[in-house]
């Protein structure tokens, strides 16, 4: 057992997932020290760590004493158009940012016990109706290549005995994020299917994702790659219909594939909107993880009415664990 509450450094702490994680750890009132990694002067936050992935600036001394790291940093993949500059930002914010963090952590006399690394189900490319799990090979496309290199960037820490957990996120559902972007068009009756609507969307409720991260910090069995999704992916048509129904609106107007390609370009429309992944969370199932919001209806309802459950009790009991 730890003699004192853990110290956890979190990159991407101001993002959609990062804010929920920080709030959960704070609400636990367990004395957990949260060190937010920020790209601006820390100001009055004495625990903040200033870093700049773009300028390759991060002082390893600022990470001394950190028991665990949660690396969530990464530029949004949409809705901005994928110009060459934007694609470089998407890749560099993940790959180069992680390399910078790993290089700093590798210089510590006592590295953290665990790093929980964000990743994405985009690794699998387009799976059509086929199921994939953590043992499935990489798919095609720009995003698959980014995820491959993003996951590889943290590998040097494994050689130092740090437990590394890579979580491949599906669509994260909560108050904001994807649902926030879809809310306005759906309220206008424009929330119909994308293209054929047959592409699978693998998703995870924000509360369940935070629960997986907290569990990953404390459970030495959790390492390597885990798919952070529910066991019940849905087709895009069903997602659009159920979300519209939750907002008491019809899902009237579909977005034809041709129109999406004209707006976003063929590559971005294909990978971000028209492709899908039918992902099985085999690793979490084997570990016995219990989802609070396993069905789409559960996650949508909790996101909209504010009843999303977060793992405050698990955070209160958190003891950061190293290698098994």
Mean pLDDT: 95
Q: What general form does the structure show? A: globular
Q: Which structural category do the helix and sheet elements fall into?
A: alpha/beta
Binned, the helix content reads 25-40%
Q: Output the strand order for the largest sheet.
A: 3-2-1-4-5-7-11
Low-pLDDT parts are: none
The major β-sheet equals: 7 strands, parallel
Work out the strand percent. 15-25%
In whole angstroms, the N-to-C terminal distance is 14 Å
Count the beta strands: 13
> What is the CA-based Rg, rounded?
19 Å
Number of helical elements? 12
Q: How would you sum up this structure in a few lines?
A:
The protein has helices at residues 16-27, 84-106, 142-152, 155-159, 177-187, 206-218, 236-246, 257-264, 266-274, 282-287, 296-305, 312-316, and strands spanning 7-11, 33-38, 49-50, 68-71, 114-120, 131-132, 163-169, 171-174, 200-201, 203-205, 224-228, 234-235, 278-279. The protein is of the alpha/beta class and 324 residues long. The chain starts with 6 loop residues before the first strand and ends in an 8-residue tail after the last helix.
């Amino acid at each position: 057992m730890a003699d004192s509450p853990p110290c956890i450094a979190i990159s991407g702490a101001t993002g959609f997932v990062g804010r929920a994680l920080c709030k959960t750890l704070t609400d636990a009132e367990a004395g957990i020290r949260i060190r937010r990694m920020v790209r601006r002067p820390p100001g009055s936050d004495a625990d903040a760590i200033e870093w700049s992935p773009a300028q390759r600036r991060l002082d390893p001394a600022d990470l001394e004493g950190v028991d665990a790291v949660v690396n969530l940093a990464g530029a949004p993949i949409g809705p901005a158009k994928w110009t060459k500059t934007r694609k470089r930002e998407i890749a560099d914010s993940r790959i180069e940012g992680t390399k910078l963090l790993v290089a700093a952590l590798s210089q510590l006399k006592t590295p953290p016990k665990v790093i929980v690394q964000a990743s994405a189900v985009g690794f699998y490319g387009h799976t059509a109706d086929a199921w994939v799990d953590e043992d499935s090979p990489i798919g095609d496309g720009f995003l698959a290549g980014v995820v491959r290199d993003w996951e590889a960037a943290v590998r040097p820490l494994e050689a130092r005995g740090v437990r590394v957990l890579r979580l491949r996120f599906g669509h994260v559902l909560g108050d904001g994020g994807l649902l926030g972007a879809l809310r306005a068009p759906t309220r206008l009756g424009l929330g119909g299917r994308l293209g054929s609507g047959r592409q699978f969307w693998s998703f995870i409720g924000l509360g369940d994702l935070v629960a997986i991260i907290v569990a990953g910090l404390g459970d030495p069995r959790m390492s390597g790659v885990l798919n952070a999704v529910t066991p019940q992916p849905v087709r895009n048509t069903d997602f659009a219909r159920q979300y519209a129904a939750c907002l008491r609106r019809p899902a009237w107007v579909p977005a034809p594939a041709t129109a999406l390609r004209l707006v976003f370009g063929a590559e971005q429309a294909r990978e971000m909107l028209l492709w899908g992944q039918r992902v099985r969370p085999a690793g979490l199932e084997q570990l016995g993880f219990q989802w609070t919001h396993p069905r789409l209806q559960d996650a949508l309802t909790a996101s909209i009415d504010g009843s999303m459950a977060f793992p405050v009790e698990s955070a209160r009991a958190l003891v950061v664990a190293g290698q098994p």
